[in-house]
Amino acid sequence: MANYILDGKTAVKCNDILKWAAWFEKADRRVAKTEKDDIRISTVFLGMNHSFSKGPPLLFETMIFGGEHDQDLWRYSTWEEAEKGHLEACKLAGL
Q1: How many alpha carbons fall within 13 Å on the CB side of residue 25?
Q2: CB 95, CB 34: distance < 8 Å
Q3: Would you give the DSSP letter of residue 4?
Q4: For a Cys-Cys bond, which of 25, 36, 71, 75 suits 58, CB 3.0-4.6 Å?
Q5: Which residues sit opposite 76 in a β-bridge?
Q6: R_g of the chain computed on alpha carbons
Q7: pLDDT for 1 beyond 80
Q8: Phi/psi at 66 (nearest 5 deg)?
């Protein structure tokens, strides 16, 4: 699995595992978080490619916690896609 770090909002491949681990430990990886009542939607930078070599790297994830769509998740390649996906998940969950 390939590792990535963020340079601003841009994901950059990082082949040095020690550099990646040091960055990952302290980084603010949150793209967005929305909460209302018992529902929470979180979008984060994963730091690892979750496409498993099938298509473009999937580096960001939105997940719904609670409500009718509990545990639904989506993955994205870019920060911008993740922001858009977060808003779509909020609409789906009625937030």
Answers
A1: 6
A2: yes
A3: E
A4: 75
A5: 60
A6: 14
A7: no
A8: 95, 165
Record the tokens describing residue 65, joined without a space: 């916690």
Q: Are 67 and 91 in contact (CB under 8 A)?
A: no
Which pair of tokens denotes residue 30?
């949150």
Inter-residue contact 6 to 14 (CB < 8 Å): no
Half-sphere exposure of 76 (CA within 13 A, CB side): 21
Query: Closest Cα to residue 60, out of 25, 35, 84?
Result: 84
Q: Is the pLDDT of residue 15 over 70?
A: yes
Q: What is the pLDDT of residues 29-62, one digit of tens each?
A: 999 999 999 999 999 999 999 887 778 999 999 9
C-alpha 60/C-alpha 26 separation (Å) is 17
